[in-house]
Amino acid sequence: MIEARGLTKRYGGKVAVDDLSFTVRPGVVTGFLGPNGAGKSTTMRMILGLDRPTSGTVLVDGRHYRDLPAPARHVGALLESRAIHPGRTAENHLLTLARTHGISRRRVDQVIDLVGLRGVARKRARGFSLGMNQRLGIASALLGDPSTLVLDEPVNGLDPEGIRWIRDLLRGLAAEGRSIMVSSHLMSEMALTATELIVIGRGRLIAQTSVDEFVRAASGTHVRVRAPRASELGALLVHAGATVHAGTVHAGTVHAGTVQSAGEPAGEPDVIEVVGLPSPRIGEVASAHGITLHELTPRLVSLEEAFMDITRDAAEFTAAPALAGGNR
Length: 328
Ligand SMILES: Nc1ncnc2c1ncn2[C@@H]1O[C@H](COP(=O)(O)OP(=O)(O)OP(=O)(O)O)[C@@H](O)[C@H]1O
Fold this sequence. Notes:
Elements: E1 2-11, E2 14-24, E3 29-33, H1 40-47, E4 55-60, H2 71-74, E5 75-78, H3 90-100, H4 105-114, H5 130-142, E6 148-152, H6 160-175, E7 179-183, H7 187-193, E8 196-201, E9 204-210, H8 211-219, E10 222-226, H9 230-239, E11 243-246, E12 271-275, H10 279-288, E13 295-298, H11 303-311
Parallel strand pairs: 3-7, 3-8, 5-6, 6-7
Antiparallel strand pairs: 1-2, 1-4, 8-9, 10-12, 10-13, 11-12
The chain binds adenosine-5'-triphosphate.
């Protein structure tokens, strides 16, 4: 279990983590999401005692990391792909770690089997693929049989089989009652792996909620509207505060708060997608202007769309919207 309360980290004038409070509970996989530079790695380093908070606290199993009597038995971590001595075998790497923490050789054998490295355990790490290195990193994190796991981008660079393997492993470890905190940029993957979410932006907490609730909340404000006077209605809805896309729009489209001019031929000219206004309000605006509606359908969004919606203002770096029509 991890409990952060008022966690803050400043680097000079830069606030990397800002008054962050959250809980990572046992028995579930908690996804840790945020745009680049949001403060995820800094938060994870503070959990593991690698960085000292400017203020606030973060406790693992009720204690500061530095006060844990046998830290490896409480928390295992995979941070950025750690440099493993290239001349050392996977087995030797794990044995050295085990010795440092008073962990048995039997446990080394167990984790080698658990992560599927038996076939290459006596091979030198210099020849390891990224996927094998990730497996070895996870084996290291699991050595002390910890009740809490903190994994920073564990599926980075893995092939689909490796991604699936990590997903099943994490869900299995959570089902055993462990607390799992995992960051990832792959939203589709997170939607399949995590049941809880902590979302941060510019160092601050944006949401702590279940994946289902997060998606449901965002879905309420994505509405597909079909109307013969769609573009006129679109302009009225923009005036009422919505963002309106013309035709059928795909996830991840960058928009600028206006009706998109049709640089690309729109799929359906009488259809608009409205973001940011609930369907009753859209119906009222249409009715007030005598506009007939043929369809008004709230749409279930993907986790990625929900994430983009909620973090758009919190992204440290955002791409400039593409100019409609381009330079063709
Ligand atoms: N040692 C440091 N000195 C100064 N600034 C830092 C330091 N470490 C991180 N930062 C800044 O703090 C902010 C948060 O960085 P952090 O690496 O924690 O974000 P992140 O969410 O992990 O990002 P990413 O997804 O890109 O890995 C960034 O603006 C970063 O530039």
